[in-house]
Design a protein that fits this description.
The complex is a heterotrimer.
Chain A (H helix, E strand, L loop, with lengths): L4 E4 H11 L4 E4 L6 H10 L6 E4 L3 H12 L5 E5 L1 H16 L4 E7 L15 H5 L10 E3 L4 H18 L2 E7 H5 L1 E4 L7 H9 L19 E2 L6 H21 L3 E4 L7 E5 L1 H16 L4 E6 L1 E3 L3 H7 L6 E6 L6 H8 L5 E5 L8 H11 L1
Parallel strand pairs in A: 2-3, 2-4, 4-5, 5-7, 6-7, 11-12, 11-14, 14-15
Antiparallel strand pairs in A: 1-8, 6-13, 10-12
Chain B lengths: L23 H15 L5 E5 L14 E4 L5 H11 L4 E7 H7 L1 H10 L4 E6 L2 E2 L5 E2 L18 H4 L5 H6 L6 E6 L3 H19 L5 E6 L3 H4 L3 H15 L3 E5 H6 L2
Parallel strand pairs in B: 1-2, 1-3, 3-4, 4-8, 7-8
Antiparallel strand pairs in B: 5-6, 7-9
Helix pairs in contact in B: 1-7, 3-4
Chain C lengths: L1 E8 L5 H14 L3 E6 L10 E8 L13 E4 L2 H7 L8 E5 L13 E5 L1 H8 L5 H13 L4 H12 L4 H20 L1
Parallel strand pairs in C: 1-4, 4-5, 5-6
Antiparallel strand pairs in C: 1-3, 2-3
């Protein structure tokens, strides 16, 4: 394994994307993700790739759309307000069934909000965000290492399913430095090969006459019967993903659990610290940390919620969004408790511990 | 027997779905002929807009992508950067290019992106049913300017060529018209030149077609041509607004 | 072993850099570390700060509400974070800019004229490295040699003069820390 380096999350995801074969990156600056665009502006020319600082987030996502239509590994990134602007493009990319990776370093909202870490974009991320029936795979890292590891994973999933993969980070993971080990960088030959896998559908130089046939990248279909088939085909893909791509972490899960917590990303890290403190007092608290927010680990929560568990608690840096998915998993068997913080505030392990003691 | 006119290879066999008297058919053909003549078809990607030509990917027989409204220059940027070995063009209407997509066209031109833009200006929104466009003339009645465009309220029409010609990067900018056979012959030369420069990787090229919309203007096609000559050409003056090849080739 | 500390000062004093070199060295010595900076408008209040956690085990929460140690390069940092130091904790302060004592019985306080020392060495820039030295001298949390190696890698070729000033500042800090 390579040596560990100390790196900010925003820089680590950029480096990991380059190593995963991303040679095209389009974005617009916004706090707290600007280190990502800066890193790309510095490193992309060194690997012979393309970096464009676009005129807007809308333009950036549409540049992604164009490059993705050419079958290349392409990425954009932003923070919450910018991700709202990208929703149009994400819907088109989804409709045209193209692969793309989008990173959201979430900040406090709504509106301009603030620039501190938050999880208020859960609904937007997991419900599609833009118009129409579609899904994005949503990956939620909780450490800088995991953030970096999600770059190759996101590109592989995007290529495999021709889908938008959204990495839902936050200001804390983006700004924080932690030790990180990178996977080996793909060679130019490997990257070339990755592009070739898409040649059946992507835009590329055509055969000479008479074998000429042209490739169309499109989400428009005016015949409702045909469009219906296209959307049902997307659904098939989504069902397959729900079967095979659910990822989660179990932390301190045991039959002794008095409370089962569900939290992702930064909120999950803080919850873990509280769980460790409570362990010292002989209290057994389990945690399910969804790594894929869509598809959501419904079954895992259902199973972890065994008969001994009296309570279930969701912890989020928002008003309570993932709690809906937790409720669906529990199917109304018990009320779901909630601890939340909004406005870019982050709860401390001590606060979480106190709250858990209250509901025990 | 000598064939003197035939369907360009760069057009599919699909029948155009445009209204009778519409000039989209002419501009499509001019682009396709030039692509054939320059042998570009197998290495060309086009971008369709949202507007009447939204289905142009059915007509151009090269690789095509369908953009969101106004975003064709952003798509084209991504495509050209991803496939520098291919040639890229966008085909856009006045609402697409000068209203919702103003930022995208200005910045693509300003970066000097290596693709061609074919801009169809007929002073109205065709597909959505004849609403006011950014190029609708002062006093002109549309379904959203029922009392005539009031330039004091909503501003004057925007001149795309003049606007983009203020930028340093664009390589070639010309406004032509499709309003008479003579004009079409001139337009063909401009289209050819733009695509030739495109093929030679010289930089950003932009051709505006002053066109008609008989259906939404409410005129017979011939009357539409006459109306456009009298009303549009004085405001949208034909000519070359930028041509860096003159300097480069010392002509 | 788990140590949580906050380094804080005016923007430009290098508080974040103290945390960075400490984290880097601890990581090289096999510890898990997290370095979480304040960002945005908070920095403009005179307390640009970083929360550092160094641990034998994997770090869960990187947040530090009650630090074991505080490195304060200016008065606003003492005012803001001083009351939050854990009982039995340690404060290392720049006496040139922190005129008032903390007045907490259960917190050990080390004062060093970091700016004066840095100026004597010949560069006000290395003020932060004096405090890094004090941490090392007082606590032994990381080895001087590890920090020295990192500094050489980063500055060795680019700026040998600054490297030397940095190393001198750390050495001076270690001396102060060792005596305290």
């Amino acid at each position: 394994m390579a040596d560990k380096v100390l790196m900010k999350g925003n820089e680590a995801i950029a480096e990991a994307a380059l190593r995963a074969g991303c040679r095209l990156y389009f974005a617009y600056p916004i706090t707290p993700q600007s280190e990502l665009i800066e890193y790309m502006s510095k490193m992309m020319p060194k690997v012979g790739g393309t970096f464009v600082q676009s005129e807007s987030e809308i333009a950036a996502i549409n540049m992604v759309y164009g490059a993705s239509g050419c079958g290349k590994r392409v990425m954009t990134s932003s923070s919450s307000p910018g991700i709202s602007l990208k929703q149009e493009g994400i819907s088109y990319i989804s409709g045209a069934s193209l692969p793309a990776v989008v990173v959201n370093v979430v900040r406090g909202g709504p509106g301009l909000g603030d620039i501190q870490p938050a999880q208020g974009d859960y609904y937007q991320a997991t419900r599609g965000g833009g118009h129409g029936d579609y899904r994005n795979i949503v990956l939620a890292p909780s450490t800088v290492q995991e953030f970096a590891d999600m770059a190759p994973l996101a590109f592989d999933l995007a290529d495999k399913y021709r889908i938008v993969v959204l990495i839902l980070s936050d200001g804390l993971i983006g700004q924080m430095m932690e030790p990180v080990e990178f996977q080996p960088a793909k060679t130019e030959e490997e990257i070339e090969k990755l592009g070739k896998q898409h040649e059946s559908w992507c835009m590329h130089p055509n055969e000479d006459e008479p074998n000429h046939h042209h490739h169309i990248i499109n989400s428009l279909e005016l015949d409702p019967n045909v469009l219906s088939d296209l959307v049902l085909n997307l659904e098939k893909k989504y069902i397959e993903i729900e079967k095979t791509e659910i990822r989660f972490e179990e932390y301190n899960i045991s039959p002794d659990n008095e409370i089962l917590c569900v939290a992702y990303g930064t909120a999950a890290r803080i919850t873990k610290s509280a769980i460790e403190e409570l362990k010292k007092e002989g209290k057994s608290i389990g945690l399910i940390r969804p790594i894929t927010l869509w598809p959501f680990p419904t079954e895992a929560i259902k199973q972890a919620f065994n008969q001994n568990v009296k309570k279930i608690l969701t912890l989020e840096l928002n008003l309570g969004q993932m709690i809906d998915d937790v409720r669906l998993a529990i199917e109304g068997k018990v009320p779901v408790d909630f601890i939340g913080r909004v406005g870019g505030l982050v709860f401390s392990p001590e606060e979480v511990k106190t709250k858990i003691e209250e509901i025990l | 027997m000598e064939i003197i006119a035939t369907r360009p290879k760069s057009l599919t066999k699909a029948q155009f779905t445009y209204c009778p008297g519409c000039t989209h058919g002419i501009s499509h053909r001019l682009i396709a002929e030039a692509m054939d003549e320059l042998g570009m078809r197998n290495k060309t990607m086009g971008v369709c807009p949202v507007g009447c030509s939204v289905l142009a990917y059915n007509f151009f027989d090269c690789d095509m992508a369908e953009a969101a409204h106004g975003r064709a220059p952003a798509l084209a940027t991504g495509m050209k950067r991803a496939r520098p070995d291919m040639h890229v063009f966008t085909y856009q209407g006045d609402g697409d290019l000068l209203a919702i997509g103003t930022a995208e066209i200005v910045h693509a031109a300003n970066r000097g992106e290596h693709f061609s833009v074919f801009f169809v200006n007929n002073a109205i929104y065709g597909m959505t049913g004849g609403q006011m466009a950014p190029t609708t003339l002062p006093g002109m009645k549309t379904t959203t300017s029922p009392y005539g465009r009031d330039e004091k309220d909503i501003g004057y029409p925007i001149r795309a060529c003049e606007l983009l010609a203020t930028l340093e990067a664009p390589y070639y900018i010309e406004r032509v018209s499709l309003l008479s056979p003579q004009h079409v012959i001139k337009a063909k030369k401009a289209v050819y030149k733009a695509l030739k420069f495109n093929k030679e990787e010289r930089g950003f090229t932009f051709i505006e077609f002053v066109s008609t919309c008989p259906t939404n203007w409410g005129f017979e096609p011939m009357k539409a041509f006459e109306w456009a000559k009298e009303n549009m050409l004085p405001f949208f003056k034909l000519g070359v607004f930028k041509d860096k090849s003159i300097e480069e080739e010392g002509k | 072993m788990k140590i949580e500390l906050i380094c804080s000062g005016f923007g430009g004093q290098g508080a974040l850099t103290i945390g960075k070199f400490l984290s880097l060295a601890a990581m090289k010595e096999g510890k898990d570390v997290s370095w979480l900076p304040s960002y945005g408008p908070e920095m403009r209040g005179g307390t640009a700060n970083v929360a550092v956690v160094i641990s034998d085990k994997q770090i869960a929460s990187p947040l530090v509400s009650h630090p074991d140690w505080l490195v304060a390069l200016n008065k606003p940092s003492v005012d803001k974070f001083g009351p939050m130091i854990k009982s039995g904790g340690l404060m290392i302060a720049n006496s040139d800019m922190c005129p008032d004592k903390l007045e907490r019985e259960n917190v050990e306080e080390i004062y060093a004229p970091m700016l004066s020392i840095a100026n004597e060495i010949g560069s006000a820039k290395v003020l932060n490295m004096v405090s890094l030295g004090v941490i090392i001298g007082k606590t032994g949390i990381v080895k001087f040699e590890t920090v020295e190696k990192d500094l050489k890698e980063i500055l060795g070729k680019k700026n040998p003069a600054l490297l030397e000033a940095n190393l001198k500042a750390i050495a001076k800090g270690i001396e102060i820390g060792g005596k305290s």
